[in-house]
Design a protein that fits this description.
The structure holds 2 protein chains of 2 kinds.
Chain A lengths: L1 E5 L5 E3 L19 H10 L8 E5 L4 E4 L3 E6 L3 E5 L2 E2 L6 E3 L4 E7 L4 E6 L33 E2 L11 E2 L1 H6 L4 E6 L5 H8 L3 E3 L7 E5 L20 E2 L4 E3 L6 E4 L6 E2 L3 E5 L15 E6 L2 H18 E2 L1
Parallel strand pairs in A: 13-21
Antiparallel strand pairs in A: 1-4, 1-11, 2-3, 3-10, 4-9, 5-8, 5-10, 6-7, 6-9, 12-22, 13-20, 14-15, 14-21, 15-18, 16-19, 17-18, 17-20
Chain B lengths: L1 E4 L2 E5 L5 H17 L7 E4 L3 E5 L5 H16 L15 E8 L7 H8 L3 H10 L2 E6 L6 E4 L14 E4 L3 E5 L2 E4 L4 E3 L2 E5 L20 E9 L2 E2 L1
Parallel strand pairs in B: 5-13
Antiparallel strand pairs in B: 1-2, 2-4, 3-4, 5-12, 6-7, 6-13, 7-10, 8-11, 9-10, 9-12, 13-14
Helix pairs in contact in B: 3-4
Classes of the chains: A alpha+beta, B alpha+beta.
Chain lengths: 310, 223
């Protein structure tokens, strides 16, 4: 068992999500950056889809009742094992009774903490992920709280591994390749690509809101042709333009349908980068085509393969 | 039909009437269920559109799915509304209207120019059909709201709408399955789980199902 001594700001159990239930209104969810979660699992010898903890801005303090192998990836969170500073992005073996304290994220926004054997909460609709809107999955469908106890699955001993530093740094690159969306136009995409955007405070797993630096919401955005859009299916990585002028970059927990114009779509390989943007971060978009988006996905798979050093 | 991501396609039906567009979208989903093996993926019904997500497909498989979709979508022309499917369940939803359970009933009554009792009578007097499930797990968008009750959403959404809230916005009625933020007008509240991840299927109301609201009380007085 893992005992939660302090939960951190918002820590949830996640795996690679539950695709297949969108028709019931259930988003796929899962780790907000699947690349980082997969890397954390590989560091401790888990399969990619093992459940782990996703921490936000400030990490949790947890005690391990049994000896465990752990690794945490991304966010450059302050970290200590039984009071001694410890480095992220590599496997650590903990003795029974050890306490791991994750602190503030010094870079990025989120961190994934994997434990060999995975967090063994029950599977619901094919996943152990926490669905905060539906209030199910993970631990009772909610973020961790002090006093929670998390079961850990059995695991064979695996050799220690570490992330190649270049791979770790590449997780949070604040640049996003865009393909056109169903409500986009050349002008709408040009406007997105011109200059920097700033992450607003009202951002979470459902969506990252961005606005123009210094300009609040920026100019009001009018849908070409005008009129109300009929609600339609949406995807994580969709770039929506509400009339207020800001843009919303949909996250993994975004509702499965939405009514704002969907002007562009972030390349699938780069949607996970949204997880690393704290309020105030700056980001840029660039236009790519579907073939380039596919190449980026294949390249990312190769980089993950090469990025876990054992 | 539009390609909206590396492996996703969006089919939109351009009918001016919401009902006719929703009828075609539901007919397309019914056809997709028959062709499940050929369409590797899942789909999301919207208000007269269908998003098809085929994450595992190769580019050539996607091209084949696109051609099949075009054929299936064309065949939905003239699909009837409400859908002619006698097997569809009719759900009766008991509702406590007004008061604490429906904090917007008084304002809605004022804006549409009826008494609270008249709003309840009209809203509960209609038969609804589930158009699609979206917004949050299990949230049904219901078509059938009398047009005299149509109002735009609230100017600012509530940060937390209680689970079971029966609400209206635009041409739709809906029921919040869990406590979430929400911008619809809250007329009342019902009990019973609209969504349960331990159940199969997890959503109690599915597209094409019929729904009737049955007033149980209005502002604390038995209806």
């Amino acid at each position: 068992m893992i005992v939660v001594l302090a939960p951190g700001l918002l820590t949830t159990v996640q795996d690679l999500g539950r695709p297949g239930w969108r028709a019931a209104g259930v988003p796929a969810g899962g780790a907000m950056d699947p690349w980082a979660a997969r890397a954390a699992n590989r560091l401790v010898g888990n399969p990619d889809g093992a459940a782990l903890l996703e921490a936000t801005l400030t990490g949790p303090v947890v005690r391990f009742e049994r000896a465990a192998a752990v690794a945490w990836v991304a966010g450059d969170m302050e970290a200590a094992i039984d009071g001694a500073p410890a480095a992220g992005e590599r496997m650590h073996r903990l003795a029974a009774g050890a306490t791991l304290a994750l602190g503030r994220a010094r870079r990025g926004a989120r961190c994934w903490l994997a434990v060999a054997g995975g967090i063994d909460v029950p599977e619901l609709l094919g996943s152990r992920s926490t669905d905060l809107a539906g209030r199910f999955g993970g631990l009772e469908g909610r973020p961790l709280a002090a006093g929670d106890r998390l079961p850990v699955g059995g695991a064979a001993e695996s050799p220690p591994r570490a992330l190649e530093p270049g791979f770790a740094r590449s997780l949070g690159v604040p640049r996003f390749g865009l393909v056109p969306g169903p409500d986009g136009s050349a002008e709408a995409i040009e406007e997105l690509v011109a200059g920097e955007w700033l992450v607003a405070a009202r951002s979470d797993r459902r969506g990252v809101r961005v606005e123009r630096p210094g300009g609040g919401g920026g100019s009001r955005w009018e849908r070409p042709g005008g009129g109300e859009l009929r609600s339609q299916g949406t995807l994580p990585g969709a770039v929506q333009r509400p009339p207020s002028g800001e843009a919303i970059l949909l996250g993994v927990d975004a509702p499965v349908t939405g009514g704002y114009p969907w002007v562009a779509q972030i390349a699938a390989a780069e949607v996970g980068r949204l997880a690393h943007l704290p309020p105030g971060a700056r980001l840029r978009f660039e236009v790519i085509d579907f073939e380039e988006a596919d190449r980026r996905w294949a390249r990312r798979e190769r980089e993950l393969e090469l990025g876990v050093l054992g | 039909m539009l390609r909206v991501a590396e492996r996703s396609l969006l089919v939109r039906f351009g009918e001016v009437s919401l009902e006719q567009a929703v009828a075609r979208a539901q007919a397309l989903v019914a056809a997709l269920c028959v062709e499940k093996a050929a369409v590797k993926g899942e789909w999301v019904l919207g208000a007269g559109n269908v998003l098809i997500v085929c994450d595992g497909a190769t580019p050539s498989e996607l091209a084949r799915i696109e051609a099949l979709l075009a054929e299936l979508a064309a065949a939905t022309e003239g699909a009837p509304w409400p859908p002619r499917d006698a097997s569809r369940r009719v759900h009766e939803v008991p509702v406590d209207y007004g008061g604490e359970a429906g904090p917007d009933l008084a304002e809605v009554a004022r804006r549409v120019g009826f008494s609270e009792a008249e709003v309840v009578a009209r809203q509960a007097g209609a038969e609804y059909v589930v158009a699609f499930v979206g917004f949050s797990p299990g949230f049904p968008y219901l078509i059938g709201l009398p047009s005299e009750l149509e109002l735009p959403r609230r100017d600012s959404p509530r940060p937390r709408v209680p689970a079971g809230s029966v609400a209206i916005a635009g041409p739709f009625a809906g029921i919040y399955p869990s406590a979430t933020p929400g911008g619809w007008h809250l007329l009342g509240r019902t009990e019973g789980a609209l969504f349960d991840a331990r159940r199969s299927p997890p959503n109690a109301l599915a597209p094409g199902d019929r729904v009737r609201f049955v007033p149980r009380s209005i502002a604390g007085r038995e209806a």
